[in-house]
Each structure stands twice: as C-alpha cells, then as structure tokens.
Amino acid sequence: MERLQKILANAGVASRRKCEELILSGKVVVNDEVVTTLGVKADPATDVITVNGREITQSDKVYAAFYKPKAVITSMSDPEGRKTVRDFMGGLRTRVYPVGRLDYDTEGLLILTNDGELANKLMHPRHHVEKTYHVTVKGVPHGDNLDKLKKGIKLEDGVTLPAEIEYHDVNVETNTATISITITEGRNRQVRRMFEAIGHSVIRLKRVRFGNITLQGLVRGKHRILTKSEVNELQQSIKTSRRS
Ligand code: URA
C-alpha cells in the first residue's frame, strides 16, 4: 500500500505536489469512492484509480537529460504562451516533469522524469546533489571574493553551503570572466544571487552537470534517454551525497 499522491506521481500524472492538489479538489477516485484527503493509501496493483474520470496505469519510468536553451521556461505549460520544455519533449511515450528548474535565461542540463519519487529526492536539500554551472560575469572577481563563495556567503534567505570554484577564462577585452561553480543546493536564482553578492552581475549561466549526468554530447534543444546505469548512479548519488 502506498500513499495516493505517490502512486499518482509515479504513474506520471503530475508532480507530487500537483497530485496532492488533484486529490484535495476531488478529482481522484479509488474504487468508485472520491478521495479528498491526503492520508489515504491504495494498492496500485489491485485498486482502480481514476483522475478526472480516466484510469491511471503504472507507466514505465522514463528519465531524460535535456539541453534547455535560453528563453524557455521550466514548466510544462505557460499561460503567457512562452516556449516551455514540453515543446522539446516530442517522441517520449510518456509525460515527464522537470527535476527542479532553470531560470528562463539559464541554459543547460535539465533532468526530466515521470519518477516522482526520485525527482523529489534529487530536489530535496538534504541530499546535496552536486550541480555545476559555467558562469560568465561582468568584471573579474578577486580571489578574496571567490573565497567568500567557496566558504558560504550570506544571502537574504541565509548563508549558502560551501561551493567549489574554478576560473575557466578571463577575457581582458570584454572585461568578463567565466567561472565554474559547483553547488549542492537549489535555491531560487542562487548562482546569480551569489555572484551579485560579490558585486559581479551574471551575463550568461549554463548548467553543465547534475549529479553524475553531464551536458556532454547533448545538442541544445535536444534530449536523450538516460541509460539504466546512469539512472542507477543517480540513485546512488543521493545515498552517497547525503550529509545529515
Ligand atoms: N542558479 C541560478 O541563479 N539560476 C538558475 O537557473 C540555476 C541556478
């Protein structure tokens, strides 16, 4: 027996939070009974579960790596009509949902899956999954300032956890620097805010790694299905990166 919202999320209906909303709004029926509370458990193998009148099936799990271009929102729909990641997910046999988000103007690696359980774990701050970004900033940050980012810097929502930082490139002509930063949190606009806090605004931001998955070999705007061993490693990275 499993909680209903978990069964729905695992079946690829929507994210766990959205599934909770579906339950609370009376859209979910288990064996002819409408369920409107969140504690209810069911057996996905034997119970007949419908959402908006349609029976759910336990679809196979799908995991994809996507190279999100700039000017695309990390969402499956947009009331303002902007491009969303769904526009790039053609060819997948089942609906997948983004694991976390990248800003509209950030490009790079986004993991998508219909495995709500793994998605939740990958996003949970407790698991400290490493994410690496290439950041191009205005000006050339001083080593002392980069040390602040390495140790943890105070932002309005608290001090950041230690980050790994490396210089990639300094362009004297354009007075810009490109830096590689690895963080283990996923706060809103975190990398942009970290660099703003040391006085350097971000011109370009690209995520190149999420856990063991890298952007290597992916073409902008395209996705690929992760292999079994990549998924296993991703699962493993949650266990090994947990610090508390
Ligand atoms: N940090 C940011 O500031 N933006 C992103 O999109 C991801 C991390």
Please, could you describe this protein's structure?
- The structure is a single chain.
- Helices cover 23% and strands 30% of the residues.
- It is an alpha+beta fold.
- It folds into 3 domains: 54 residues, RNA-binding S4 domain (Structural Genomics Hypothetical 15.5 Kd Protein In mrcA-pckA Intergenic Region, Chain A), CATH 3.10.290.10; 76 residues, Pseudouridine synthase I, catalytic domain, N-terminal subdomain (Alpha-Beta Plaits, 2-Layer Sandwich), CATH 3.30.70.580; 81 residues, Alpha-Beta Plaits, CATH 3.30.70.1560.
- Strands 7, 8, 9, 10, 13, 14, 15, 16 and 17 form a 9-stranded mixed β-sheet that branches. A 4-stranded antiparallel β-sheet has the order 3-2-5-6. A two-stranded antiparallel ribbon has the order 1-4.
- Strand 15 and strand 16 form a beta hairpin.
- Helix 1 packs across helix 2.
- The longest helix is centred in the C-terminal third of the chain and has 14 residues.
- The chain is elongated, with a radius of gyration of 20 Å.
- The structure holds uracil.
- Uracil binds next to helix 5.
Topology readout:
Elements lengths: L1 E2 H7 L5 H9 L3 E3 L2 E3 L5 E2 L6 E3 L2 E2 L7 E6 L28 E2 L8 E7 L2 H8 L7 E8 L4 H9 L2 E2 L2 E2 L4 E8 L4 E8 L6 H8 L4 E9 L2 E2 L8 E3 L2 H14 L3
Parallel strand pairs: 9-15
Antiparallel strand pairs: 1-4, 2-3, 2-5, 5-6, 7-9, 7-17, 8-9, 10-14, 10-15, 11-12, 13-14, 15-16
This protein binds uracil.
Uracil (URA) binds next to helix 5.
